[in-house]
Amino acid sequence: MGLARLAELHGVATAFSPARGVTVAVPDATVVAVLAALGIDASTPEAVRAALERAERAAAERLLPPTVVVWRGADGGRPGIPPALTGLPAGTQLRLALESGQELDWTAPPASMTSVTPTAAEVSAPPAPPGAARTAAAPARGAGSAGPADGPDPARWPQLPLGVHRLHARAPDGREDRATLVVAPDHAPGPGARSHGFLVQLYSLLSARSWGMGDLGDLAELAAWSGRSLGASFVQVNPLHAGVPGAPTDPSPYRPSSRRFPDPVHLRIEDVPEYAYADPAARRRLEALRDKAAELRESVLAKGALIDRDAVWELKREALEILHRVPLGPGRHAAYCAFLAEQGQALEDHATWCALAEVHGSEWHAWPAALRDPRSPLTAAARTELTDRIDFHSRLVWLTDEQLAAAGRAARQAGMEVGIVHDLAVGVHPGGADAWAQQDAFAAGMSVGAPPDAFNAHGQDWGLPPWRPDALAVSGYAPYRGLLRGILRNAGALRIDHVMGLFRLWWVPAGSPPTEGAYVRYDAEAMLAVLVLEAHRAGAVVVGEDLGTVEPGVREALSRRGVLGTSVLWFERDWDGDGRPLAPAEWREGCVATATTHDLPSTAARLTGGHVELRHRLGLLARPLEEERTEDTADVAEWLGLLGALGLLPEGADDEEGGIRAVYRYLLRTPARMVGIWLPDAVGDRRPQNLPGTWDQYPNWRLPVSDAEGRPTSLEELAASPRLHRLLDVFPARTAPPGARPS
């Protein structure tokens, strides 16, 4: 009983539900391990009692919760008193230190002067941390006025500017406490008029100018062409985070070294301004590298080779080493210095890790002990010794940031209302740059995954260390804020992989199977508030990948804050009723609607049953082939029947290309705010980019976009493809929700 109470106080669940009506207890050993990762000793009954006593005493003595959230309406009206601040002792002094440096003083009034009606969001939010204070704040007379006069009511909460501020409380009995105060808009920016756009894995889209894989020059071209010629409003790409160097490199974009900085493998070398100013000898070497890159490109586009990220990076790295020796002009040098100053310690740490990885390997846990600490004297000495290499890696981040910005400008100039949709992976590699530089923020010895469920009895372990919710709260969510600010600086929108992780994550102790994990809860209100605040500052739409098992209330909480969901056609059924496909009008409006994703079969593979045959060849089926075929055929037939009944399949059920067009006609019948076109669908590609459950058995993350016959298709060929244009004829230049009226 004591262990369960201790776990509850620290947000660790002691049971989970793998299916409706089924509850499974978490092993005590898992609970003990997870608590240890949070700095809590629960290894013995005596330790549990002592830890529980400390936790309950600390909770009882707290004046403030770790984080207080204030949602500010679009009308700018004065918000009510935050519910977390409605129980302070009368006379408690509050000092608010704003981001701007201004300080305001307020005093808690008697409880009789406080009247708070909780919002729907507050009613449905997870319980406040034990011991969280419930206080009311009132303006102190004299020092620190918050703008216009507040009127005679001393219990009114001030209208504070958006931002992440600090609260300091002193009670009449002498107790003091501190908290982070997040003031956020009540909604993230919306996507504007209903729109459509492309979804693509950038590496898979090669052009006649690529160096063996798609790059940021190709992204700019795709945005400019699809925006101007096809009326597309966005292009969504895979995470472009910095990868972990190695031989071979893990090609998955969802297990990066750093989510804070981009990967220079995506650079278009010829678009680096210094390329034009290389001396003759350097230019000859660059031209030789371009020729080798052309061979790589042709091996993929014409000879059936897989995308070889390592080979591409070997060529680009040598080219970038050459360009690093080309002096920057005064203006360029000033811009680079400004970038370094803006990025500060975070960039220096990232570049230092990259430089140390060149010497000691990319797994920092195997480095000399003193170098495992980014603040040790030995690491400081290494920074001095490796100054040139640190500058090189910092320069690469700057160049990549410039080309990301250029792609964003190309999208806006093409008339895209949303622009480039960047993707935020759910975590980072445990041996990478972020895990080294931000060790205090990550839970050592833990990995993020998924519990067993009806579709995967063994659960999943993704090999990504989770953030510690307590460390995030103590830091005022600084690591999270910095991450969001960095990726949003060049984004028209942000897709968040496994957005349910803002609420809770499944932690798996090292050495344990995924079945023996536990859910750990985060302060979802704070996580959402920071997300909405940073999206507002960037003017960016937010899309959450909310597929799979989602706990009750999560989709509603996300929707309330303007975070769009993700709806995939084949999963949209009446699961609480007869299980049949949902009619278009029954879909939710607040989503990106699409036919597939990078982890799922293409629409052509789904319609033909090719995905079943592929999984059979690789030994991935859990049931006999004929059972899988029968079920899949019935599923597809049911959808085709609905498409035909709605008049969306004039080509007939046996026309594969017509079936793909019918699927997208159907998506346009839904009220979804954004409709995403999986770019490989436009040319009939039948292969998934990633096949979960495989490693070497399938070329995950290494396939180029290909046509229905499996022939790789370049960006130039896509632009001229009759099949693509026949599909895009389904989409008007600008779409409006069904039933919408002109404004």
Automatic annotation (TrEMBL):
MF-aspect GO terms: 4-alpha-glucanotransferase activity
Record's compositionally biased regions (Low complexity): 118-154
EC number: 2.4.1.25
Top EC class, one word: transferase
Catalytic activity: Transfers a segment of a (1->4)-alpha-D-glucan to a new position in an acceptor, which may be glucose or a (1->4)-alpha-D-glucan
Keywords tagged on the record: Carbohydrate metabolism, Glycosyltransferase, Transferase
Region (Disordered): 105-159
Pfam families: Glyco_hydro_77 (PF02446)
Top-level lineage group: Bacteria
Entry's family note: Belongs to the disproportionating enzyme family.
Protein name: 4-alpha-glucanotransferase
Organism for this UniProt entry: Streptomyces peucetius
Lineage: Bacteria, Bacillati, Actinomycetota, Actinomycetes, Kitasatosporales
